[in-house]
Structure formats: structure tokens, C-alpha cells
């Protein structure tokens, strides 16, 4: 016979009488199918559908993997202002004893920034670093962008220092964002400090 492959077929089959081995294999296929659905709807930015399938996984006592959570966070944060839900999901990953990947942190940061929750966006970066995930330069620059618009000059300076410590060159773009944060916060002295630092690295900053 043809083995069920769709989520609906697998759900129907699991409710019937199955030999133990077949039950376990159907259960594993069902979990994989749920994760595929969450990832699919996450990419389509349909946050309600993604979260619905995530909840169904929990109802079956499945352990959603990090990719499923990351997809759900993306659905909540990429195009819609559901970043608070995204942060809840990020916290749940930790509660379940897993470590979120950079994708999960990136989408959570982006969601906060889109709704001008600048400080939350930077806090997500800090949380990422505390878990040992080493972010890409692009992720740090996105955090610096939040600092720029939010006037978070102290956070911006800290991020520049972390980037240099981890051999991620902030370059002209990074220093510009940090200096803009100082300007927004009226921290002229720190603007001069960052300008001098950029110059010492060979970057010419034009404001």
C-alpha cells in the first residue's frame, strides 16, 4: 500500500491501530511533516498558521527543533509587528534546553527594529552573544542600525568593541552608525572619540 505522506494522512493514520514499529515510524514522519509545515508557512510570513502548527506539535508532545522555532519567529517578525511573540518563542527555545541559531536571533532583532523597539533589538543581540552564537557582520550592523535610530550610543560603542574583539571589522559603515547614535543622543564628545578611532583604523568618515 502507499504510505501516507501528507500531514493530514499521517494524523489520520496515527489515530488507528498500528503495530508498535509502524506506529513509531509514523510518529516520526508526523513530526517531520509538522516541522516542514511550520518552515513553509514561516517563509510565507503567515504567522498564525506557523504558530498553529507549532502548537499542534506541542499537543502531540513533540519537541519542535530549532529550525521550526526559527521559521515561526520569522513569520512573526519579518513583515508583521508580532515581535513580542517572536521574543516569546526565542525564550521558549532556551526553556526547552536548546540553543537558538543565528537565524532565530536575526529575525527577532529585525522584528523589534521594524516596530522601532530599538532597545529590544539590541538586547536580542546581547542574548545571542551570551549563548555563544557568533554572529555574522551583517547581524552586528543591523544592531548598530537600531542604535543609530534609537540614539543608543553606549550600546553602539559596546558593539563596535565586540566586533573588533571578534575580528569583525566594523569598517566605515559600522563606525558611521555608531557615530550617528552619538549625534542623536547629543554625545558630541563620544562622537569625537569614535571619529578618532575610525581614523586610526584608516577609515575616513564623512558626516
Plain-language structure description:
With 207 residues, this protein is mainly α. The protein is 72% helix and 0% strand. The protein is built from 11 helices and no strands. The chain starts with 6 loop residues before the first helix and ends in a 7-residue tail after the last helix. 41% of the residues are buried. The model has no long low-confidence stretch (mean pLDDT 89).
Strand content: under 5%
The percent of residues in helical segments reads over 70%
Structural class: mainly alpha
- The tally of beta strands, per DSSP, is 0
Shape descriptor: elongated
| Element order: H for helix, E for strand | HHHHHHHHHHH
Short description:
This protein has helices spanning 7-14, 20-43, 47-59, 66-77, 83-95, 102-114, 118-130, 137-150, 153-165, 171-184, 188-200.
Amino acid at each position: 500500500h502507499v504510505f501516507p505522506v501528507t500531514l493530514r494522512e499521517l494524523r489520520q493514520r496515527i489515530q488507528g491501530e498500528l503495530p508498535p514499529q509502524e506506529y513509531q515510524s509514523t510518529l516520526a514522519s508526523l513530526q517531520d511533516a509538522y516541522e516542514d509545515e511550520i518552515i513553509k508557512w514561516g517563509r510565507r510570513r503567515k504567522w498564525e498558521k506557523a504558530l498553529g502548527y507549532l502548537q499542534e506539535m506541542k499537543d502531540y508532545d513533540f519537541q519542535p527543533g530549532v529550525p521550526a522555532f526559527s521559521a515561526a519567529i520569522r513569520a512573526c517578525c519579518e513583515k508583521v509587528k508580532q515581535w513580542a511573540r517572536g521574543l516569546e518563542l526565542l525564550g521558549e527555545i532556551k526553556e526547552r534546553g536548546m540553543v537558538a541559531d543565528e537565524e532565530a536571533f536575526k529575525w527577532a532583532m529585525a522584528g523589534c527594529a521594524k516596530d522601532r523597539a530599538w532597545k529590544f533589538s539590541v538586547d536580542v543581540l546581547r542574548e545571542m552573544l551570551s549563548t555563544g552564537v557568533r554572529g555574522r557582520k551583517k547581524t552586528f550592523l543591523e544592531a548598530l542600525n537600531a542604535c543609530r535610530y534609537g540614539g543608543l550610543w553606549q550600546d553602539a560603542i559596546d558593539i563596535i568593541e565586540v566586533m573588533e574583539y571578534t575580528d569583525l571589522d566594523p569598517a566605515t559603515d559600522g563606525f558611521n552608525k555608531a557615530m550617528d547614535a552619538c549625534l542623536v543622543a547629543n554625545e558630541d564628545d563620544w562622537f569625537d572619540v569614535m571619529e578618532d578611532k575610525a581614523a586610526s583604523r584608516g577609515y575616513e568618515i564623512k558626516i
